[in-house]
User: What shape does this take?
Amino acid sequence: MQAKIKALREQVESTIGSVHTKEELSAFWQQFLSKKGSIQDLMKGLGSVSAEERPTIGKLINEFKNEVNAKYEALAAKLEELELESRNKSEQVDITLPSKKISKGSLHPITITKDLMCDVFSGMGFEIYEGPEIEDDDHNFTRLNVAKNHPARDMQDTFYVAEDILLRTHTSPGQIRVMDSKKPPIKVLVPGRVFRSDSDATHSPMFHQLEGLVVDKKITLCDLQGLLDQFVKKIFGDGVKTRLRPSFFPFTEPSVEVDVSCFECGGKGCSLCKGTGWIEVLGGGIVHHKVLENCGIDPEEYSGLAFGIGIERIAMLKYGINNIGLLYENDLRFLKQFKD
Ligand code: PHE
Assistant: This one.
């Protein structure tokens, strides 16, 4: 029996030397330590050992089993360690390598222009108000002194949502909403999206306007010119001048079209100003007394000025954009040019 143990011990020694993987380790366990393994076979052989020798031999086999078990455990721990080591090695990252470039977003040129315009007027004490894009006929037209069937409605091709409900054609209904909710003195801006059935290189069915409204005692056209003069200088540079031309809007009287002297040629005449030296930038005027009355403001006591500026128009002039479509296509090659 002792010779058998010795032979098995030698076999264990030589087998364990060639165990390098988990699979080989498990085969080793099967061969020697499992219920069907060689050590268990030795145990089974105890029956044929004489009664006197049995306790000693039994003890020897047990010791041998513990010894092989300890070897097995030690090797299992070592293999585990080696595997972890090689995994760490293969998964190593070089933290000094440059990282992937994450491209940063930027503001849309319309937003940049709108913010710039709002900043200029905020500096003059204007507050910002935003009205709804879906309006009723009353706010968009009637109370702005554009009665039903008034030919001036044709000036703005309107998208109707339902009877008397429409997509606002301008930000001027914001004037009515502000005057309904606030008593003079009033000094507000209404920026926002507006909609007209119109589309070509300089017109889009959806575009943006910035409305301005001032209502106070003794407001005159001079105040309007003063404000707008400051505005265009801040946007196009100190060298530019403004010019007011008579115009017509049902909600202002008198009404004006405001031109800025051409910042490209300095007024000599070029392709941008079509040889005239002047570029039209916005419409405005003195708030019609009927509009004030429609909002419960006494035109004998108060007067107001109002203006509406196309934000796309200012952006296109400022950045030299010749097609309005570029502003809505979301082409990154175009948009990236406005990164600061
Ligand atoms: N609402 C006018 C338009 O869209 C512009 C405007 C605003 C004119 C305020 C006068 C006063 O054309």
